[in-house]
Amino acid sequence: MRTDPLSAFNFPASDMEPALFFETAASRLAAGGRTLAYFALPEGGGFRLVMAIGFDREGRVEVYSSRVSGPFRALTPSFPQLHLFEREIYEQSGLKPEGHPWLKPIRFNTPGAVPGVADYFTVHGSQVHEVAVGPVHAGVIEPGHFRFQCHGERVFHLEIMLGYQHRGVEKRLSSGPDARAIHYAETLAGDTTAGHAWAYCGALEALCGVNVPPRAQVLRGIMLELERLANHTGDLGALAGDVAYLPTASFCGRLRGDFLNMTALICGNRFGRNMFRPGGVNFDLDPALVKELKLRLAAAFRDVERAAALLWDTGSVADRFEGTGVVSKEAAEGLGLVGPAARASGVGLDTRRNFPYGPYEGFTMSVSGSGDVYSRAYVRWLEIQKSAELAAAWLEALPQGPLAADCGELRPDSGAVSLVEGWRGQICHFALTGADGRLRHYKVADPSFHNWQGLAMALRGAEISDFPLCNKSFNLSYCGRDL
Amino acid sequence: MEIVKPFCQYLAAMTLAPLLPGIVNRVKAFFAGRRGQPVLQLYFDLYKLLNKTPVYSRTATWVFRAGPVAGVSALVMALLLLPFAGRPSFLSFEGDFIFLIYLLGLARFATVLAALDTGSAFEGMGASREMQFAVFAEPAFFLGLAALVRVSGQTSLAGIFGALTPETWRQAAPVLALLTASFFIVLLAENSRVPADDPNTHLELTMIHEVMVLDHSGPDLAYILYGAALKLWLFAALIACMVLPRHSGSWAADAGLFLLVMAGVAAAVGIVESVMARLRLTKVPYMLITAFAFSALALIFQMGR
């Protein structure tokens, strides 16, 4: 069933016979569709499989669903992008995808499951050795377990085992909407506050049928782009730090703080908490603040420009970045990668262009093609320029008008797919209401959910010493994936 | 008197060695726009670590405990051979430069064995890398010293550096310049500095030297850190003695100038670390082969002179 992102649709109309459901899903995915969400919805003691497919070129979303009672046909063998979705369905509902090649738990949230305790992929041979990293790491980062099958310094295979960060956010959001829900959305992945908060608000606004006032749209855009600026700048610095290139690492560490401080000037919190609310935003900009932000943005961008120029002009850095951790375009498309990681492999997907929302009409995206660490770094620099330009233009011409519109009741028996381009990539929130007009189910697909497998692929045949650099070039969220 | 002075020089070297990493860190901090840690930080760290109780894994044996002590002993011994400001060293005999190389080899051997004894995948990886790069670094160093033996006609370290004068530079400048470059590259690699290694990283998978000592704690770690400072001092002193073959006759003037050049070498290390990224691990051997080529060229030039 066709729909548009950010508009409500009649959910029962998506129902199909199981056989037709899998045929349709396979043919739509083969025709260039990309899975946005695929989950098992509890219904009357049984389950209903729901799949949302995005068509990037047409900017269209299609939703299909079907009641299933037992094992169902796994589509992963033909469409690897579904592998984690089907494992998730198996873990959450017990419905077995028949023919799935690697049916392991992904979050260990079923009774008796212990995070990390599962079978692992192994390679046999007298000279093959296994390196296990984590879940406790040397730096102050999130927990995750990485297992390398190596031959000397070369990596045959990397298996990434997460699930340590599972908090049950989807379950919390499913019982809403309530006053706390927006805060759960904001902390879904702490560094993507604006992205997830916007996606959550977008889903509710679609279900209420409310239009967000232009001024609020633009203020949201400013928050999202500042978040992107802060994180991309931090990533460039961290990438420089990983190859021991001191100047850019030091500069960008400070500059990330400058962007975060600008966010704090707007809403009082460096990570943009409490800015979004369903229907609009909570804080306004007065002319003095606009002026201050413009000055700070210009100054910070000038410094980032210099720090980045140092990075690109240093031969030893280029030598380290180029050709490291290559993800081919085919692999990126096959795995359904999103965000800068996909654009660095030459995949033309940016929600702001393919599914324009809010203030992003006429957006042109940045792509860099070779799929290596250099590309993933360079795409970030291109996006930094774009974001700075967008934010400056918006500050220059802020639309007048109210900050928020009133959200009424949610439409009963409806669904809405909300897509936002967070700094890591496409965020998808899928909300469903019941007959009582309350949320019945809430599904989140953080970009990290798609992209972790991309990191594993980047390590195929690579040097194990390049892992930290590759990992940093993706910089994925553990809690965003574990929810 | 001839015993007392070299012994004082030896003690000075042992005491001042932890100053060098402090200087490197301050230079790096300057380039990064930070104030940086105190120059004496390593002394504080050593004091703190010596007062701690070490923790040992239940699976590690005496090899693991012996590693740091053997390592630091070998370097303490090596420093005895080292001339200070071109002055006679405390211990000197014909061909002692070979003994020096073996002492460094022994220290490495002890560290690697201790690392392998932990049974950790990380440490095994580090040990393998350390030995792989040593295969390239040791010939470069050995050949460099051999070239110096040819230049000076002496076979003891004290003799070699005692015989070097400004006059030698006038006669064999290309040889000495090549050797300085070669020794500096070997210094960077042997002391796990950028571009061969990154002493500041917390990423075990990329480490070489640091990953081998992850499991050591307390006084053992202090011995390792102190041993690393001595090693840096040793290589820096060889370079300093070479670029500044000054014998003004005044012991104080010579020693002062020598210390100044030592600080200069440490600053150079800091500058290198500030302006370039570290090499891909697979390219470190190329850098060391370059050092080997410099040493070999120096030897060939010298033999053809």
Descriptive account of the structure:
The complex is a heterodimer of chains A (483) and B (305). Chain A has 483 residues and is of the alpha+beta class. Among the domains of chain A are: 2-98, Beta Polymerase, domain 2, CATH 3.30.460; 205-429, Cytochrome-c3 Hydrogenase, chain B, CATH 1.10.645.10. Chain A has helices spanning 18-30, 83-93, 169-174, 181-186, 193-208, 214-242, 246-267, 287-313, 315-321, 329-335, 339-343, 351-354, 373-396, 447-458, 467-474, 478-482, and strands at 2-3, 9-10, 15-16, 34-43, 46-55, 60-68, 72-73, 97-98, 128-133, 145-151, 154-161, 276-277, 280-281, 414-422, 425-433, 439-445. In chain A, strands 1, 3, 4, 5 and 6 form a five-stranded mixed β-sheet that branches. Chain A has a four-stranded antiparallel β-sheet with strand order 2-14-15-16. In chain A, a hairpin with a 2-residue loop joins strand 14 (414-422) and strand 15. In chain A, helix 7 runs antiparallel to helix 8. With 305 residues, chain B is mostly helical. Chain B has one domain. In chain B, 72% of the residues lie in helices and 0% in strands. Chain B contains twelve helices and no strands.
Strand content of chain A: 15-25%
* Helical amount of chain B: over 70%
Overall outline of chain A: globular
Estimated share of beta-strand residues of chain B? under 5%
Low-confidence stretches of chain A: none
Set out the fold topology.
The complex is a heterodimer of chains A (483) and B (305).
Chain A: E1 2-3, E2 9-10, E3 15-16, H1 18-30, E4 34-43, E5 46-55, E6 60-68, E7 72-73, H2 83-93, E8 97-98, E9 128-133, E10 145-151, E11 154-161, H3 169-174, H4 181-186, H5 193-208, H6 214-242, H7 246-267, E12 276-277, E13 280-281, H8 287-313, H9 315-321, H10 329-335, H11 339-343, H12 351-354, H13 373-396, E14 414-422, E15 425-433, E16 439-445, H14 447-458, H15 467-474, H16 478-482
Helix pairs in contact in A: 5-6, 6-7, 6-13, 6-15, 7-8, 8-13
Chain B: H1 4-16, H2 19-32, H3 41-50, H4 62-81, H5 96-117, H6 121-152, H7 157-163, H8 166-190, H9 209-212, H10 218-243, H11 251-275, H12 284-304
